[in-house]
Design a protein that fits this description.
heterotrimer, A alpha+beta (599), B mainly alpha (381), C mainly alpha (316), B: mainly alpha, 14 helices, C: 316 residues, 13 helices, 72% helix, globular
Chain lengths: 599, 381, 316
């Protein structure tokens, strides 16, 4: 008994010491040092402009493998690229400006593109960046053994000559269409002609996979694959731990990462003297990882955060607040319908799908459940632009698109009932049963499906239609869609704001990760012609083709579009947004270009 | 030595040496007045004396009654939605005149809108303040409004208010209690059965059987139960049956450990030894002689486990692994309420009250039962 | 005894191995792809990544690879949650703050729980006892996310007593401690309640026992007997809940960590499972299981040490 007590006491002591020791470990010293530096800087400059934001946890900052939006918000600050994209106050629109490059790229045929680089570009540790650094970075990006998910930027987003073949290990690097003509000139050869905007976007902003990587750090963290004779060892995959911790994360952009405690906070300091630094106003950006929405709101109310997104649950409280601004999402959410279902053959009936399309009370969901979202009875979201991006003509504003968009929110109970009766008759006047899959662990998704269930059954009569709900984790749900083993399920389709045609690939018949069940030859044909074929350089016909494609979608209904997730955001009054509350694709409200008043 | 032998030989008592002394006398022995009282009857008698336990029993009965009949007490169903009446505060006829449950709430509005938008429903202006926006002050106000009037629902009464999509919280609360209680009780019954059998065998036989059985529980218990439950539900899909099964996965281990410990405590005791010497079989030793000692702990553990499982269920709901929509449960309601805790506290308050009261009642009730079964532990928790 | 411990340790190793193997198969049976659900990732990339981590091979083959690594204590690097970072570094990085918080919480929990428990037991069936018992059950039954959120709103937001979030200072300073108060409190409530309950039960038991009678016959006063015998004896079984509590806290609390933005171990498991980051999931499971097994062993051994009448491992 005494022994045991002693043991317990001993354990307590050990644990205490451990925790205290661990608390003041090596990491601690490093960060304190940095903090001291910060203090000094603060004292020198009179009132640095600090921007405090909330963020999500960061997995990796390696631009070659990162695939999350929250990480891209970090990378766009700390990494530079050839170009940058900013909000231009004069034209009240977007503007590409050269960053590491000297000017925008030149091309004669839309196939070969040449970038001239500035001569004094450096990483913050002084290592110079030139054309060779870029070429090396891209070689690593496409490396057949590293297998970076970002590699698609160079063969899928834009088709660089032999990039895919190199990635698959079929050709040598020399055959890839990327060359450094001299130390400061880059040449990129494409397989097919591409619109300028796609090329510009691929090489602009630090979050793109095309941003350069720091060669020494990248190689220092590299673990080579060990190949033994005859067998492949499971250990020693070729990979690098580049940018997985503060010391391993360099900076080539406007800001330098000076503090990073995973899942807690980050601090960025401005790199004055970098090419585009003058466009950005904050001298220091502080970021906290906050996962609870109510916590974010409290911090905002206390003035400890510059911006907060207002979800439906809080919207009632802030609905009349003048600071509310709305984002414009390029994603349309809805229910996939399995139009090829074997298990539930009535879903193959077009009338039923139409009934479900017109019978969903979209406003009940967007205004009732989400409060802030917009109803979308269409497939191509509102920010998508057609024609010259500089003019900013939006597809949904064109007359032709308007003509095919259903009226209002697309809710038409009479029409829906008419279609439903036909489908009901086709089902032999038997009760139709449909199971809807919704995403687990997402409260609003659950509510959305609950409302849909109730609205459908109320409209068509619960004696004729029975809807059941089933929860699934998002990844498993998408798996189920791909296997075609579902009736209906929640899902989203995003679009490339500048190239809506390209985004239509997801609906084509031979799209490899197809989650819907539409197979339409005319659609496939139009997709080919608008993205690689004859319609590429005919703006008018290209728009018409897009309208036609959407029309086909509305006829086939592989997905019932419901809402566009336009979030509401509030900014502190000290942040004077230069877009004047207007939401721009890619740059949003351009908060880092905003005028920041002293507190 | 010799003397004793001699003595033994000398003293020889024969039957005829004895004679009856009181053969003719009457024995004045009193007969028992009452009847013989059985084990359970005895327990019942003692239980009745425990006031707290009786009250708890009535509370449990009341909640069970409400769980069965509560959802039928008004015209709403648990899934009927009124999107235009979302987040209405509680309003009860009669009580509303006392200033509680009167369907009012405080909201923030622009001052200029008060007259036009909230004219009729306005009760009073609580606070006025300014929001600075682009160089000018925007006058705002916190006002108290009659939420029912505001949403054109003057003749409507939602006793406990409505949730985010305008469903009646009263109906959902009792339906949720029903589901939660069902999950809790079923899980406990199954766990108790498995745990008692497993623990008895393991504890009674000891040796290598115990070693093997304990390794099995170690493997199962070694995997963090939350993880196991999570994976199981992710695999099986949400629903009441998967939930019960998930709780059974590792839930019986605690019970079996307790039973095993009881067996270790009692199997070496003299009375067990005595009955074994007298030829009692293993089965009768286990179930007649040792296990009854554990009735108190079993009942305490089982009654405590019911709200324990309800609690686990609410934690899982917080993680988003709730029941299949639109079925409510206490956990689902709490998780939904927590998201809007500060704006609409009524959605958290009532489920939290039900779960606390259930827990309290089950505890006191369990203790009462245990005291009744084992009077030597009287009055302890 | 030593032989028994030896047996148990050997058994523990086997148990751990079994746990990890079962986990391996369970985790790999989960649907979904490690590459994520972004449909725009080309099939070539998806396939290549899956092949890189042998996810395209049949499960037994994958298990073979896994075993080879596992037996040489090579747990590998995380795939998704912190790509390329060795899994145990991830856990080690997150442990300190979790430990700090929980040890503070223990420092608060144990004495308070014991005190309340003693008071309740000594004042058994009085108003004080009923109040403490009711509060105890209230704190056990209301989930911690409700307390944490309410305390954050009032104590931090409304009344400005403490910061809303955990301070980012790396060392334990006064300001950092101040920001730790709310998380510590949120973590402590159910612990205090649990210990109070247990302590009250044990002490009631002790107060009724024969040795108390004996002590009093020896001439000790009620107070002396209670302090010297009853309370001391009722501490012993407390080990049964404090040991697992202490070891269990390493798992952290996801709820409290979420609300106060604490970079601890709490959410690691859920995140790694959701991201299908199997090496990390298995490492975290391994870690938790090890702790769980050690705590079971300690409790079992303590039975024997505390009460010599119990012979561990004895036959019927």
């Amino acid at each position: 008994m005494k022994k045991f007590k002693k043991l317990l006491a001993l354990m307590l002591i050990i644990a205490m010491t451990m925790s205290i020791l661990a608390g003041c470990g090596k990491k601690t010293q490093d960060v304190t040092k940095e903090e001291e530096e910060v203090e000094v800087e603060k004292a020198e400059s009179t009132g640095p402009k600090v921007y405090r934001k909330s963020g999500m946890s960061t997995d990796t900052l390696n631009p070659h493998v990162s695939d999350s939006t929250s990480e891209s918000y970090v990378m766009e600050l700390i990494y530079g690229n050839l170009l940058d994209l900013i909000y231009d106050k004069e034209s009240e629109g977007l503007k590409f400006i050269p960053n590491h490059a000297e000017a925008l790229p030149t091309t004669e045929d839309g196939i070969t593109w040449v970038f001239k680089l500035k001569k004094d570009i450096k990483w913050t540790d002084g290592t110079p960046i030139d054309a060779n650094s870029y070429v090396w970075s891209w070689k690593m990006l496409l490396d057949p053994e590293l297998i970076n998910s970002g590699a698609r930027a160079l063969f899928d987003t834009i088709p660089v000559v032999n990039a895919l073949e190199y990635f698959k290990g079929e050709v040598e690097w020399e055959e890839v269409g990327i060359k450094a003509l001299d130390d400061y000139t880059l040449e990129i050869k494409l397989e097919t002609q591409m619109p300028e905007i796609d090329v510009l976007l691929t090489f602009s902003r630090g979050y793109q996979a095309t941003t350069p990587v720091h060669k020494e750090l990248y190689e220092a963290g590299m673990k080579e694959k060990v190949k033994k004779e005859g067998e492949e060892d499971s250990k020693g995959l070729k990979e690098t731990d580049y940018a997985t911790s503060l010391e391993k994360t360099p900076s080539s952009g406007t800001y330098k990462l000076t503090e990073w405690v995973r899942d807690q906070h980050k601090v960025y300091e401005k790199n004055t003297g970098t090419p585009v630094a003058d466009y950005y106003t904050p001298d220091r950006i502080e970021e906290r990882v906050i996962s609870e929405n109510s916590t974010r709101i409290q911090l905002f109310e206390k003035g400890e955060l510059e911006a907060v997104s207002v979800t439906g649950d809080d919207y009632e409280k802030y609905a009349e607040d003048p600071r509310i601004v709305f984002q414009e999402a390029n994603t349309v959410w809805g229910f996939y319908i399995n139009g090829k279902s074997e298990k539930n053959p009535i879903l193959q009936n077009k009338d039923l799908r139409k009934a479900l399309f017109y019978g969903i009370n979209r406003d009940a969901i967007s205004k009732g459940v989400f409060k802030v979202y917009a109803s979308s009875p269409y497939y191509i979201s509102t920010p998508c632009m057609v024609g010259d991006w500089k003019e900013g003509l939006k597809y949904r504003d064109t007359e032709k698109a308007k003509a095919i968009t259903p009226e209002g929110s697309g809710y038409n109970p009479e029409l829906a009932k008419e279609y439903f009766e036909k489908a009901y008759a086709a089902n032999g006047n038997k009760k139709i049963q449909i199971e809807i899959i919704y995403f687990e662990a997402q409260e609003t998704m659950k509510r959305l499906s609950e409302v849909a269930e109730e609205e459908y059954e109320k409209l068509f009569g619960s004696d004729k239609l029975d809807i059941t709900l089933r929860a699934m984790p998002p990844m498993a749900a998408y798996d189920t869609y791909e296997n075609g083993d579902y009736d209906m399920g929640i899902g989203a389709r995003g679009q490339n704001t500048f190239n809506a045609w390209k985004s239509m690939v997801v609906w084509t018949s031979d799209f490899p990760n197809k989650t819907d069940t539409m197979y339409n030859k005319e659609f496939d044909e139009l997709f080919k012609r608008t993205t690689q074929g004859d319609l590429m350089n005919k703006p008018e016909e290209r728009i018409e083709a897009l309208v036609r494609m959407e029309e086909i979608l509305m006829d086939e209904i592989p997905l019932i579009p419901i809402f566009q997730n336009n979030n509401a955001v509030m900014y502190q009054d000290r942040i004077k947004l230069i877009t004047g509350g207007k939401y721009m694709p890619e740059v949003g409200f351009a908060p880092y270009q905003a005028e920041i008043l002293d507190q | 030595m010799d003397t004793t032998k001699q003595l033994k030989e000398e003293i020889k008592i024969k039957e005829k040496d004895f004679k009856f002394v009181q053969l003719d006398e009457k024995i004045y022995d009193e007969k028992f007045e009452g009847e013989a009282i059985g084990f359970f009857k005895d327990a019942m008698l003692r239980f009745k004396k425990n006031r707290a336990a009786i009250v708890s029993g009535w509370i449990i009965a009341f909640i069970v009654f409400m769980a069965i009949f509560g959802p039928m007490m008004n015209e709403y169903t648990y899934r009927e939605q009124h999107l235009e009446w979302a987040f209405l505060p509680p309003r009860v006829p009669g009580l509303e005149k006392l200033g509680i449950f009167d369907g009012t709430k405080e909201i923030r509005v622009r001052k200029e809108n008060i007259e036009e938008k909230y004219g009729d429903a306005l009760i009073k202006v609580v606070e006025e303040y300014n929001v600075k926006h682009q160089g000018r002050d925007v006058a705002m106000a916190v006002i108290k409004v009659d939420a029912y009037k505001l949403n054109e629902a003057e003749d409507v009464y939602f006793w406990l208010g409505t949730d985010s999509i305008g469903r009646d919280q009263w109906t959902r609360l009792w339906r949720g209690s029903r589901v939660s209680l069902f999950i809790g009780v079923m899980a406990v019954i199954i766990n108790m059965f498995i745990g008692v059998v497993y623990g008895s065998v393991s504890g009674y036989y000891g040796g290598w059987i115990d070693m093997v059985l304990q390794r099995i529980t170690e493997v199962l218990g070694g995997i963090p139960s939350l993880v196991l439950i999570m994976l199981f539900i992710m695999y099986m899909g949400a629903g009441i049956i998967p939930f019960i099964l998930a709780m059974v996965l590792t839930g019986w281990i605690g019970m079996s450990r307790m039973i095993r410990a009881q067996f270790y405590k009692y199997k070496g005791q003299e009375y067990v030894l005595a009955s074994r010497t007298m030829g009692a079989k293993d089965r009768s030793l286990i179930f007649r002689h040792i296990l009854p000692n554990a009735i108190g702990p079993i009942i305490t553990q089982a009654t405590l486990a019911v709200p324990g499982f309800i609690f686990t269920e609410s934690m899982l709901s917080y993680l988003g692994l709730g029941l299949g929509a639109p079925e409510p449960s206490i956990g689902v309601l709490l998780a939904e309420g927590q998201k809007v805790l500060l704006n609409h506290p009524h959605l958290t308050l009532f489920p939290a009250m039900v779960i606390s009261i259930l827990m309290l009642a089950f505890n006191l009730f369990g203790n009462g039962l245990r005291d009744a079964f084992d009077p030597t532990l009287r009055g302890q928790e | 005894m030593l032989r028994y411990i030896g047996q148990r340790l050997a058994a523990m190793a086997i148990t751990l191995f079994l746990i990890i193997s079962i986990s391996f198969f369970v985790l790999h049976a989960m649907p979904g792809s490690i590459v994520g659900d972004d449909p725009m990732i080309p099939q070539e990339v998806r396939k290549a990544i899956e092949a890189k981590y042998h996810l395209d091979k049949p499960l037994p083959v994958q298990y073979g690879y896994f075993l080879k690594d596992f037996l040489s204590f090579e747990f590998g690097t995380s795939l998704k949650v912190q790509p390329r970072v060795p899994v145990f570094n991830i856990i080690a990085e997150k442990l300190p703050i979790t430990l700090q918080l929980n040890i503070f919480s223990l420092i608060l929990t144990v004495p308070l729980g014991i005190t309340f428990g003693i008071i309740a037991a000594l004042k058994k069936n009085t108003r004080i006892d009923h109040t403490i018992s009711t509060l105890t059950i209230f704190f056990i039954s209301v989930p911690s996310f409700v307390f944490a959120a309410v305390m954050q709103y009032y104590m931090a937001f409304k009344w400005d007593l403490v910061p809303i979030l955990l301070s980012t200072e790396p060392t334990l300073t006064w300001t950092k401690f101040k920001s730790m108060i709310l998380p510590i409190l949120s973590l402590s409530f159910s612990g205090i309640a649990g210990i109070t309950r247990y302590m009250r039960a044990e002490l009631c038991d002790a107060l009724n026992s024969e040795y108390m009678l004996l002590a009093k016959t020896k001439g000790l006063s009620q107070v002396q007997a209670t302090v010297k015998h009853a309370i001391r004896n009722s501490f012993i079984p407390l080990a049964n809940i404090i040991v697992p509590m202490f070891l269990g806290i390493l798992g952290g609390s996801m709820v409290v960590e979420n609300i106060f933005s604490i970079p601890g171990t709490g959410s690691l498991m859920v995140r790694s499972i959701n991201a299908l980051d199997h090496p990390l999931s298995i490492a975290v499971l391994f870690f938790y299981s090890l702790i769980g097994l050690i705590s079971i062993l300690l409790v079992d051994l303590s039975y024997g040490i505390i009460d010599p009448r119990i012979r561990i491992g004895g036959r019927k």
